[in-house]
Specification:
Helix content: 25-40%
Radius of gyration: 19 Å
Structural class: alpha/beta
């Protein structure tokens, strides 16, 4: 059976070059392209091959989450995931509005991979497998950026089920504000490698270039009671922890897009990233201690247990559980 693919983006900008390129690629292949707006989005947004949903339109949906999710927050992207699920998508691509796919982005993906596997290594600077530069992904604890990784050639090659696959991004990858303030860009990564991380190896991943298969859809939930610059990173930690219970790998693969970054205030980014610098290790230590149930039948329960833990350790507000419950109810109604 062919995959039914949807691409989901959120934006407060007009239909720039990256969105136009995504829309054109979707038109050619019959992919659904969903763009979620927010309070600061343009009053008029028109782009052939794209379904744009304003804040007013989102509030008309039957989704309870759409009515209670805070505005001016990246977590409204969750509404796009629900719409993709409602349309029957069984693969969802998570992209940013300033990332342009290259030719290697569009071919069909395989969930099953035979790749080198890193497991049991704790924190892994995944960029070390794709570049010799001193560069690290946003979300990696600062005291782990120079940690040595196991040589790629020594990793065991295994057949791995990878329902979550993260592609690297060239030119302006998703590094943190400290890197941007102190170190050089652009950056290009090698295109001849891919590997999977499994139980016991942590690496943050983001929304620039990630594919999700249907069994993993609940794990796409983006928390709303945290800063914008940590929501996708904390989601990635929870997704990894729950993936371990199903013997899933998280695939990291060659770049398939490039970013020309929207304007940012780097000091504002630094401020937004502070909770991550301070708490990412504590979050993963706490998640790692949880007793979770195996199998996809326990996916939603495991997800709530993980978010309960983040509320308990005071990195998320208790409101998060209300939002998560609404998200899970909406997902159940669209399935």
């Amino acid at each position: 059976m062919d995959d039914k693919v949807a691409i989901v983006v959120t934006t407060i900008n007009g239909p720039g070059a990256a969105l136009q390129a995504i829309a054109e690629g979707c038109r050619r292949r019959g992919y659904q392209f969903i763009v979620i707006g927010d309070e600061a989005s343009p009053a008029e947004f028109s782009l052939a091959g794209c379904h744009f949903y304003s804040l007013a339109q989102q509030r008309e949906f039957a989704f309870r989450f759409a009515r209670i999710c805070p505005t001016r927050h990246y977590a409204r992207k969750n509404i796009g995931y629900l719409l993709a699920l409602q349309s029957g998508a069984n693969v969802i691509f998570d992209l940013d509005d300033d990332c342009t796919p290259n030719a290697n982005f569009w071919p069909a993906r395989n969930r099953q991979q035979k790749v080198p596997v890193n497991s049991g290594d704790g924190w892994v600077n995944i960029f070390r497998y794709f570049s010799d530069a001193r560069i690290w992904p946003r979300g990696l604890p600062l005291d782990e950026i120079d940690r040595t990784v196991r040589p790629f050639e020594t990793l065991p090659v295994e057949a791995v089920d990878c329902p979550i696959q993260h592609g690297l991004t060239d030119v302006d990858p998703d590094v943190d504000a400290i890197y941007r303030l102190t170190s050089p860009l652009p950056q290009s990564f090698r295109s001849d490698r891919r590997l999977a991380l499994k139980d016991g190896s942590w690496a943050p991943f983001n929304t620039q270039n990630t594919a999700w298969w249907s069994e993993s859809f609940p794990l796409m939930y983006l928390p709303a009671t945290c800063r914008f610059r940590v929501t996708d990173i904390w989601r990635s930690f929870i997704a990894q922890r729950i993936a371990w219970t199903n013997d899933w790998g998280i695939l990291f693969h060659e770049p398939t897009n490039a970013q020309e970054r929207n304007p940012h205030d780097l000091m504002k980014d630094f401020e937004e990233e502070l909770p991550g610098y301070l708490h990412n290790k504590k979050i993963c230590e706490s998640l790692g201690r949880l007793q979770l149930g195996a199998g996809t039948a326990n996916l939603s329960g495991n997800l709530r247990r993980c978010y309960e833990e983040l509320v308990t350790i005071d990195v998320l507000d208790e409101l998060e559980l209300t939002l998560l419950d609404a998200w899970l109810e909406d997902m159940a109604q669209t399935s």
